[in-house]
Design a protein that fits this description.
Keywords: Membrane, Transmembrane, Transmembrane helix. By secondary structure, the chain is mostly helical. The chain contains 3 helices and no strands.
Amino acid sequence: MAILIRILLWLGWVAGVSWSWQAGMLGTGTSLALGALSLVVFAWPASSARRRSTELRYVDVGKEPAGLH
């Protein structure tokens, strides 16, 4: 997930929790717990399959140029 989308989702989450707390629908402890959970979700790493497909890989092509034996 792109970092910008992650930031926007995190801001939406925090805004929703703070609005719910302000409206009296959530208690202080619940709001703090949801805020801490939002940081965990925001910091969650990208999937390992996607990381593997984008990392640079070394390809051994031999020690001598072709045709110079």
